[in-house]
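Summary of Year 1 activities. Much of the first year was spent building the evaluation harness for sequence design. The harness presents a backbone, in tokenized form, and records the residue chosen at every position. We chose the following record to illustrate the format because it has been used consistently in internal testing since the harness was completed.
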């Protein structure tokens, strides 16, 4: 995972921060839980509407496999050496050593040789192994147990889509509408925009963008279309994603009403919490199982003397 994150975070920053300039805080990292589970976290903090940012993250994820396929093997070897070298660095404080020792205790593994084991494993990892892990656990098109949580924070002044709209229209339509409203300062009818997309799929991207630019001219612009403007760059990306949506893991349950627990489902089948207080209250009533790790020492690590 460390190798995958190192490759992903550099590419992620370059695409969404440097090239697309979507935010000032862009990054990818990994997070681990006491149960041993790992997550790949991707974040973008900026002024664009979160629905559009989420679509751009989706686009990166769907295209990242090709990045791994084309990744230079020599560069990969240097990356492995860099991570191994950092792992073997001498600890410089008691606090750092305490943290290293506490990690296996917290996880309940009591494997105090974990770091040495990880270094040994890293030296055996090939690029194909990283690609296999991506396909098996993270790639939304191939991972059987693909699990994901999206967290969106909207500015108070932002035009937040209603629960009705998010349940009725695809995220790609909402993202495009948000970009158009932000850049043109014109109201966007979602039904009209959806009809436009349905008819535009038979056109080339350039023709569709030209038609959209004619219908929604940029605010304070003397030109109907200026593809070099950052605003139109976002609109072009959003339009491309609306015309060519990625395949989603569709798990929509049309027979269940989630409103009473403060949730609803989007067109893509994602569960969205709209009422946090109601959601917390109903989960408490239903006795939601919360995994808890009981720290039971590995007796073999204590010369087979059971500790009571």
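For this record, the design step produced the sequence shown next.
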């Amino acid at each position: 995972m460390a190798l995958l994150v190192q490759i992903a975070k550099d590419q992620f920053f370059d695409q969404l921060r440097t090239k697309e300039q979507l935010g000032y805080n862009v990054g990818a990292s990994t997070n681990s839980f006491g149960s041993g589970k790992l997550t790949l976290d991707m974040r973008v903090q900026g002024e664009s509407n979160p629905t559009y940012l989420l679509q751009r993250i989706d686009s990166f994820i769907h295209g990242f496999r090709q990045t791994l396929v084309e990744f230079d093997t020599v560069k990969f070897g240097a990356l492995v050496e860099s991570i191994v070298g950092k792992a073997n660095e001498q600890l410089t404080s008691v606090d750092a050593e305490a943290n290293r020792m506490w990690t296996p205790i917290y996880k309940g593994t009591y494997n105090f040789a974990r770091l040495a084991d990880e270094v040994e494993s890293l030296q055996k990892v090939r690029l194909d192994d990283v690609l296999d892990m991506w396909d098996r656990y993270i790639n939304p098109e191939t991972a059987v147990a693909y699990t994901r949580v999206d967290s969106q924070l909207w500015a108070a002044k932002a035009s937040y889509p209603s629960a009705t709209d998010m349940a009725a229209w695809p995220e790609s339509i909402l993202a495009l509408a948000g970009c158009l409203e932000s850049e043109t300062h014109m109201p966007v009818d979602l039904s009209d925009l959806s009809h436009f997309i349905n008819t535009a799929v038979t056109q080339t991207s350039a023709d569709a963008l030209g038609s959209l630019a004619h219908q929604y001219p940029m605010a304070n612009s003397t030109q109907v279309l200026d593809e070099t403007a950052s605003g139109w760059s976002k609109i072009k990306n959003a339009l491309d994603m609306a015309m060519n949506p990625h395949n989603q893991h569709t798990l929509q349950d049309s027979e269940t009403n989630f409103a009473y627990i403060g949730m609803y489902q989007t067109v893509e089948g994602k569960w969205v919490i709209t009422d946090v207080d109601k959601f917390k209250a109903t989960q408490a009533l239903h006795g939601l199982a919360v995994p808890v790790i009981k720290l039971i020492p590995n007796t073999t690590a204590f010369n087979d003397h059971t500790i009571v």
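Confidence is low (pLDDT under 50) at residues 219-225, 288-295, 297-308. Quantitative recovery figures across the full test set are reported in Table 2.
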